[in-house]
Amino acid sequence: MSRKPVLLSFLLIAALSVPFATAYGADKKPVAGKAVAAPKTMNSAAMVNGVPITVQELNKAFTAFKNSPQGAQLPAGKEAEVKGFLLDQLISGELLYQQANANPPKNLEAMIDENIKGLQESRFKNRQEMLSSLKQQGITEKDLREAMRRNIVVGHYVDTKVAPGQQVSAAEIKAFYDNNPQLFEQPEQVRASHILIPLDPKATAKERTAAISKANELLKQLKAGADFTKLARENSSCPSSQQGGDLGYFAKGQMVKPFENKAFAMKPGEVSDVVETQFGLHIIKLAEKRPAGKIPFNDVKEQLEAELKHQKVNEAVEKTIADLRKNAKIETFIK
Fold first, then answer.
1. Spatial contact of 250 and 289, defined as CB atoms under 8 Å apart
2. Which of 28, 123, 302, 312 is packed most tightly, with the most Cβ within 10 A?
3. What is the DSSP string of 107-175?
């Protein structure tokens, strides 16, 4: 499977309290400082308490946005408006960073190294591929380290100074559940495991015969009482093999049709015959069926608590930025 260059706009627009797509889509307007004539000796888009935000930084943020799914839908003639919004968000990020940088986390450089390593391992084959992807987006390794630094510093501040004061009560969680019943309706679902024997649609007759023979042999072992989980771990080419072939719960429309049709037609505990899809040959075992209905409160209580707290933290961060703006010296040099 090919790897597409990762979009790093979230790193370029460091420490933003409101994602651009959400805020801009809600018709929020920039609230940056008063525009003044740009100093001839500086290539600055803005100054925040004496710290410049360069035109280059703004242009990189704009390029990253244009390469994003939201940017692809940008109406013509909106470029200046978008740049104004992005600049305002960069100003917010700078204010929050200045506040947070008074008490950065210990071992900051090691944390930056660890985060970059995690980014590389999760999205790229190796370091060179990561650097090549960054270069395609006009991002240097120095840019990446600085963005990571700012995100870590701000994240530490939010985690230690803002989040602890934002609590969600049991009553709030239950009230949200009761007042939004439409969010907790779920369609019929099944939980299934499978063993996948790869078979390319363009396979030769010999390759096809070999794959079918292997699938039939495994099916024979299962009918004789072999352990499905063990055979999946040892023979399936799907990443789910690490979980014994378990695919978890899924609804109609989430799997390819031949697989889906068979799985929903089975009974719990039943093992299918060999099913062919474009991915290869499958042997399916159905574990459980869930009828359509409302998700029980206890099943979503913890997730709801986390999401409601996240919302409160975001609101608290926005308020922090608004308070910082009141005492900040902000100059912008673009209209």
1. no
2. 312
3. THHHHHHHHHHHHHHHH-SSHHHHHHHHHHTT--HHHHHHHHHHHHHHHHHIIIIIGGG----HHHHHH
Domain 186-292 has CATH 1.20.1050.10: no
Q: What is the pLDDT of residues 242-298, one digit of tens each?
A: 999 999 999 999 999 999 999 999 999 999 999 999 999 999 999 999 999 999 999
Burial letters for 232-244: b for 16+ Cβ neighbours within 10 Å, e otherwise?
Answer: bbebbebebbeeb
Q: What is the largest CA-CA distance in the chain?
A: 83
Residue with token string 């695919």: 247
Structure tokens at 151: 């995100």
Rounded to two decimals, the pTM is 0.63
What are the C-alpha distances in Å from 244 to residues 199, 225, 235, 240, 241?
20, 16, 10, 7, 5
Dihedral sign for Cα 197, 202, 204, 208, please.
Answer: positive
pLDDT single digits (tens) 92-129: 999 999 999 999 999 999 999 999 999 999 889 899 99
Structure tokens at 233: 């771990």
